[in-house]
Design a protein that fits this description.
about 250 residues; alpha/beta; Rossmann fold; 2 domains; six-stranded mixed sheet; 10 helices; about 40% helix; about 25% strand; globular; binds adenosine-5'-triphosphate; binds magnesium ion
Length: about 250
Amino acid sequence: MSQKVLDVRDLEAGYEPGVPIVRGASITVDQGEIVVVLGPNGAGKSSLIKAIAGLVPITGGTVLLDGKNITASPAHIMVRLGLAFVPQTENIFPLMSVEDNLRVACGILRPREVPARIEEMYAAFPDLARQRRTAAGNLSGGQRQMLAVARALIVHPKVLVLDEPSAGLSPKFVAMVLEMLAGIRKSGVTILLVEQNAKAALAIGDRAYVLVEGKERHQGVASELWNDPVVAELYLGQRRLDLGQGSAA
Ligand SMILES: Nc1ncnc2c1ncn2[C@@H]1O[C@H](COP(=O)(O)OP(=O)(O)OP(=O)(O)O)[C@@H](O)[C@H]1O
Ligand SMILES: [Mg+2]
């Protein structure tokens, strides 16, 4: 049996006919790995993982999950197939309590399994247990991401796909969220992660890809990529330029 939990081959996807945003991207994620996708703003990182999750129209290529072709399955079917997607924003219901957020995420579980599964999530995320009656919108930014991740994990996915879970968080919470993902991987869940906090993400990742203009231009062992001159040129150099332009404006 294939080791690859996720095998994305030559994927093409976009929002309008004739305007590909993801342009022949190929990435793999092995069982138990954390794979990080880096790249400059607008490279198509979110579009790539949304296409994998069935949220952006696919015009070419394939997505295999455990060897099964799941290309362009609707997002609600993806959950049943074992792929859980955590979007960058609007990933919780802010007016609902923490517990109700977890409960409504249990859709594909048998009703009698739900209470015990919610308790398992509380055991894994004690912060959420303490705040089970709190409206999710009143949680800290880091706890909100914790809830979003718990909502995704509650249905036992094979692979967890996340879009910038640390975006907008203070450095303390960035570290907390990424450490949480490292812990989740230890429990056997395979993770595909898009991150702007490249250094912190590479510290918890096994392998990483650099996506530029909708295609992976470089890949390697996560711990080696931070000092890789090709990455600096493809990605970090470009970010420095962006920052320079920003501060001059
Ligand atoms: N809903 C949409 N409709 C049309 N075009 C879109 C849509 N979302 C993104 N795009 C376009 O797709 C391209 C890639 O965007 P995407 O959000 O995938 O990049 P990204 O690498 O995630 O960027 P960032 O680092 O800023 O999050 C951009 O040119 C963007 O304008
Ligand atoms: Mg994005």
